[in-house]
Amino acid sequence: MKNNANQWRVFKRLMSYLKNYKWLTALALTLLLLTTVVRSAIPLVASYFIDNFLTNMDQTAMMILVGYYLMYVLQTIIQYLGNLFFARVSYSIVRDIRRDAFANMEKLGMSYFDKTPAGSIVSRITNDTESISDMFSGILSSFISAIFIFTVTLLTMLRLNAVLTGWVALFLPFIFILVNIYRKKSVAVIAKTRSLLSDINSKLSESIEGIRIIQAFSQEERLKAEFEAINKEHVEYANRSMALDSLFLRPALSLLKLLAYAILMAYFGFRGMELGISAGLMYAFIQYVNRLFDPLIEVTQNFSVLQTSMVSAGRVFDLIDETAYEPSQENSGAEIEEGNIEFKNVSFSYDGKNQILDNISFKVNKGETIAFVGHTGSGKSSIINVFMRFYEFQSGQVLLDGVDIRNYSQEQLRKNIGLVLQDPFLYHGTVKSNIKMYQDISDEDVQAAAEFVDADQFIQKLPDKYDSPVAERGSSFSTGQRQLLAFARTVASQPKVLILDEATANIDSETEQIVQNSLAKMRKGRTTIAIAHRLSTIQDANCIYVLDKGRIIESGNHEELLALGGTYHKMYQLQAGMMEN
Q1: Which residues of 511-550 are buried (b: 16+ CB within 10 A; e: fewer)?
Q2: Keyword Transport: yes or no (predicted)?
Q3: Which of 33, 248, 373, 428 could serve as 182's disulfide partner, Cβ 3.0–4.6 Å?
């Protein structure tokens, strides 16, 4: 019962998307109804011709015969137009659903993406919405057409011969019983099939993104085995679904239609002469039995696709309804003027159980640079995640220019905080579009930003300079060049606060000096928070904080921390020793 209620809710929600296309839908339905009327009239015309003109061909008979075939042509044209309009409605609705799903996905916080594979999200917005399209463009029109044809045909048969119609109607309950049994048995199988298809997409996406690591560690065979295991299970469930289709749909219903034919033939044979049933009526009834059963067979044949569409729609609506949004902002109208930052006893946990930051407090003013160092898992990146409002902290206070960070609008934060990551992400497009990031920035400002961070030197050597194409993730550029483009992107927006998350960790020693010079210019006059792996890159910081298990255990400038002879001193000696070796 719960499954039925859930499917009904999904169906009603899908139907709600029709309201934006009510006139186009109404036109498509009208054409379907006209198709049904013409289709139902054809056997009556044939019956009349057989009874009155089959052995007496004259001009009137020829006109009826021509009209009979013209009705087939008319039916084809109207049916084509009806299907065409339904297809337009279908693709428009799928566009709307994809838009809603993508729009909600863009608002979701990092916590959602931490636990949801990218391939699964892609599968919902592409494969699952395409399945919904199948329902609207083919199945829905098929269902409505079947209802029209079934109703009109049954009423016509009752008017022709109520007794004979009653005998044929005895088979209808069996059809509905078969469909109901199929629906109950197929839901779980189809849901599992769609879920496994999503797993295939996830594994495929993961393998493509990590292909270098896979090949570097010779993991090809393991990945092939894992992919094949999911692929094999998907085939098994697809075969189960096909087995259900083969048993409960066309074969079973075709058998019922043959039995109905048998009753018809027996009735005509035993009582046809007695009741004075004409050859035309016999022909019409045989045609109407076809028209009565064929739509039902077509509908049940498409029932598996409908079930798949409903399951797919449920998965898409789950994404649309997901509420794990990024932390909310009050938008008090406050504006960031200086960029002074203060953390007051901030504690944070990703899962609400394991403490990642424990009573963190520090302060940094405009023009100053502070740095965080520590071993992996010490909480360095978590400080950035909290400050960037990617995650909500549990206790304490984060102040920006003396104002609680929650009171700034999201737009104000993103405009005034520049983030440079360890692995810079470049979009498919051009060098110019990657620096602009579709902001209202002039071409002159783009070039000025590139010159400021020393990226203009290599850009000018490109074939099309700033209009040179950028491949996906910037794979045609070196790591250093990608980082310089990321610097230019950040500088172009003129942020007041600069966040450097191990921005030089992947840079080779030859490029490091260029990047360091660029960083020095970027930091000037800006509040800067740096997370550093190489201690040599943050020796000029105003204050360095050493983290361990989410707590600040040491703080001071480079010389002060060395003099302490503690954790920082050990880290520095270790790195210095590695450099010497």
Answers
A1: bbebbeebbeebbeebbbbbbbeebebbeebebbbbbeeb
A2: yes
A3: 248
